[in-house]
Amino acid sequence: MVNDNIVNCEHVWREISNYLEGDIEASLRARMDQHFQTCSACRSLLEGTRNVVQLYGDERMIEVPSGFGSRLQHRLAQSRRTPGRSWSPWSAWLVPLAALLLITGGVRIASSRTVPQPLLSAHAQPARDIPPDMVVVVSADAKEFHVPGCEFIHNKDRERTLTAKEAVQQGYVPCVRCMRKYLQTASAGRTSLEMEATSQPDTAAPKQDGGE
Amino acid sequence: MPEGNIVLNKPVPAGTSHELELIDRVQRGENHLFYELVRPYERRVFAAAMAILRNESDAEDVAQEAMLKALRAIRQFRADARFSTWLIQITVNEALMRRRKERSGVMEAIDDRRDEESDYAPRDFADWREIPSEALERKEVRQRLAQALASLDRKYREVFVLRDMEQLNIQETADALGISIASVKTRLLRARLMLRDLLAAGWEQGWFSRLPFEKGTKPW
Asked: Which pLDDT value is given to residue A194?
């Protein structure tokens, strides 16, 4: 700290950035202003540093590759189409397959080979037809994932958003209230959602996507 | 500490009512509006990724990934934050994860451990020759400035880009990079002084020799 009314050039160098930020005490600012009046080298330093910040802070300094915007737009559009996929390819061939199994008497074989997955919650039921990219909410110390805004979310102040697929990957099960339309009561082995989730174990999103 | 820069940068406006409406509609599921919401910031998002990755292809991919994550996490956004800052923080986070995964910054990371606090004496120029912002209309000038920035060590470049180009404040810059406020200030000072030296030296090398100056303006 400088205790008298004089600042030397080295002190000005160290504080010049804070000076430009407006992040110094008023008394130091006054002493620096006084110094700038008499020291041309430090005045030059101030003008140059201010010039640097002005130039680089200009929007024109940011250049993006040609076509960047349209490629981004395209990728966002692609991502919107994906959530609409709700397992119709599965259901399309599951019906004739089921008929075939009935005809050949293979039902018993099929059921004997199905290994039920343990469910984390006593209330949980297997889910089907949940779009994997559907946005869902989970919260701390709870096992279910919910439709955003579900009144049965515990610890709402500690909730976070992720996709249904990520929720299943992380061991969450669907809420039996808000996800009712996706649930089935019959015991079926692994659902298509679970199969997709476990086939891509590395796609879990980080728990925190930037602060606010 | 006062927030923001009272001397230099133009203040970044809070979200406009149009932006707030778009955010609300996207949060309610109208995802097709998301691009309209992020379009004003797409350049800054790319620049943030570029500052960390230094490769156009990787930066573009990370910028796209970050936007997809932002879309998925849009309900986490709270209106009391700046949307642009939130986007940039997601992008920085994504870019840092990419760099860690690819281990491309090993050599620079070693460099990060030294010289943080050592004294730096700016070059002594008798007078500063102002580079007017109109000069940025010229591509060669922008390229020279970009080259000067690219020549800085990573730790200085990242802080400078986030604070002075992306207009994050000191605290936001520290949060995004996971470093202390004191480190942000130290690196920012050094980055600004080094760029000043590089630009002044550029004058000597004729970088800006064809800049138009008003009659009577002191050339040096």
From this structure: 46
